[in-house]
Predict the structure.
Amino acid sequence: MTIRIEVRNLDEVKRILEQLGPRAKGALPAAVEEGAKVLAAKIAANAPGPHIAYEMNGATALVGPDKAHFYYAFFETGTSAHRVEPRTAQALHWGGDAFSAGHAVGGVASTPFMRPAVDEGADEVGAAVGRVLVEALE
């Protein structure tokens, strides 16, 4: 699951960073990482488990459940009742001696934890990014 965060006036931010020169541009990845740390902590506070991480790619950060815990997205968005059936075998193996030809799964109500963290933490994330950029320019 991905939540897209759009920076308003991004062209203006880029123009300002260009005007400030290479120090500001060079500090951008560290600033984004600091913001990602703040956001990851906000998300982790209400996540269904402890597996919230961030990945850096240049001056871009991906924040959310680690890849092994992709199913946290089901808590964020909820699921409807559905049936789980084997795709290639004749039965599902549930561990030990338990097998079945299928299983009815009740739905899961959505309990968002990422979107509220983004909405509520926007000012803190922005402040963290700003602190790093200000320090780099002093």
